[in-house]
Automatic annotation (TrEMBL):
Entry GO CC: cytoplasm; nucleus
Oxidoreductase recorded as keyword: no
Protein's UniProt name: Protein kinase domain-containing protein
Family: Belongs to the protein kinase superfamily. Ser/Thr protein kinase family. GCN2 subfamily.
Length: 221
């Protein structure tokens, strides 16, 4: 389906089991960011993918990455070599709005530049509004960090990567024994205690500090 509907343009980023590519739809000529993730057809893997699709389908907000559907198909040839994918694996595809630049990129490029605090407040307000909207849908993001905060073509904030987002009821009634999210931005209770919306608020505070104060990666850690 991907090769019939989209023209591959370039790879935006990649990880251990997949990548995000820029692609142009043959019919509407719009450019999209298409997430391509390799997975084994095991119950827990399929459940995680379905969770992200179902979570994204709930959201319609200007500061959250727009979702345009999803599907599963056999891996393209490149996945067998680059990601060591096996023949019996599948590839999950999810086109979203195209954003080529993240807050992580901006922080890295502007470590020594003076901050425009008025602009930072405007951007952070957009981020808070996005998280408040996520919470209003009874969902916790659980992995807020600069690399999951993107800029759109109008330099507005877009929150992305809801792959480990969870229903608030699930998070508040289960005591998790596995670390979720990125340790640097995870709330203290996130690794060993029942938790709720506050884990996202904790991450927001750290992100706002990075946006407001010049600091190197060593200082952040």
């Amino acid at each position: 389906r991907f090769t019939h509907e989209f023209k591959f343009i370039k790879e935006i980023g990649s990880g251990a089991f997949g990548r995000v590519v820029e692609a142009e739809h043959f019919l509407d000529k719009w450019k999209y960011a298409v997430k391509q993730i390799a997975f084994q057809r095991k119950e827990d893997k399929v459940e995680k993918i379905l969770r992200e699709v179902q979570t994204m389908a709930k959201f319609d907000h200007p500061n959250i990455v727009r979702y345009y559907g999803a599907w599963i198909e056999r891996p393209p040839q490149v996945f067998f070599f680059k990601f060591r994918v096996k023949l019996f694996w599948s590839i999950f595809y999810m086109p979203t709005v195209l954003c080529n630049y993240s807050l992580e990129d901006w922080l890295s490029e502007n470590e020594q530049q003076p901050r425009d605090h008025q602009k930072m407040r405007v951007l952070f307000k957009q981020l808070v509004e996005a998280v408040a909207y996520i919470h209003s849908k009874d969902v916790i993001h659980r992995d807020l960090k600069p690399s999951n905060i993107l800029f759109d073509e109008k330099d507005g904030i877009r929150v992305c990567d809801l792959g480990i987002a969870t229903e608030i009821f699930e998070a508040e009634t289960l005591s998790t024994r596995t670390i979720t999210g990125t340790p640097l931005y995870s709330g203290p209770e996130q690794s060993s205690w029942r938790y709720g919306r506050k884990v996202d608020v904790f991450a927001l505070g750290l992100i706002y500090a990075e946006m407001s104060v010049n600091m190197t990666s060593d200082v952040r850690e």
